[in-house]
Structures are given as structure tokens and as C-alpha cells.
Design goal:
2 helices, 89 residues, 5 strands, five-stranded mixed beta sheet, globular, alpha+beta
């Protein structure tokens, strides 16, 4: 399974968003993904917001530890948020 963390065409979440319902959507099989039950073969899965559709994920733990090692790289907004959280800690 390949998980899409960021894509230029996806909604970029913001603190002002009031999203509450999320799921994972397999773009390969054009259906919601739940425990590899969306179809056989490779999966290309993205976070899906009920309000916005495909949505970029906030940085995941491994991305925060190694931001240069991910493609696509973290957005500038994600890096700024991460740095602010680290400075506050």
C-alpha cells in the first residue's frame, strides 16, 4: 500500500477547518479503503475529508524526524507549524 501524504491537487488543511469525518480512499480502485478490502493488487490511498474530498495529511512522526527524506517534501506551512510546536515544547 502506498499512502499519499501530500498532493498539489488536495485540500491543504488549516487550523480554521472544522472537519470531523475522515476516511481513506483508494485511488487505484476508486473506492474507500478499509483494511485492504477495496480490491486486489497495489493500493494508492489518500486521506479523504467528507467536506473537502482528498486532503493533505499533517506531518506524520517519521516525516518530522526526517523531513528531507520524503517525496513530496513537507510544505512550507507544515514545516513552519512543526518548528513552532518544537520551539514551544
Amino acid at each position: 500500500m502506498t499512502l499519499i501524504l501530500r498532493d498539489a491537487g488536495f485540500h491543504e488543511p488549516a487550523d480554521e477547518d472544522d472537519c470531523t469525518v475522515f476516511s481513506y480512499f483508494c485511488q487505484t480502485h476508486d473506492r474507500f479503503h478499509q483494511n485492504d478490502a477495496c480490491g486486489e493488487g497495489p493500493h494508492l490511498v489518500a486521506l479523504h475529508c467528507e467536506e473537502h474530498g482528498p486532503e493533505n495529511m499533517w506531518p506524520q512522526p517519521l516525516m518530522l524526524a526526517f523531513p528531507e527524506g520524503f517525496a513530496p517534501a513537507l510544505s512550507e506551512a507544515q514545516l513552519c507549524r512543526l518548528r513552532a510546536e518544537w520551539d514551544a515544547a
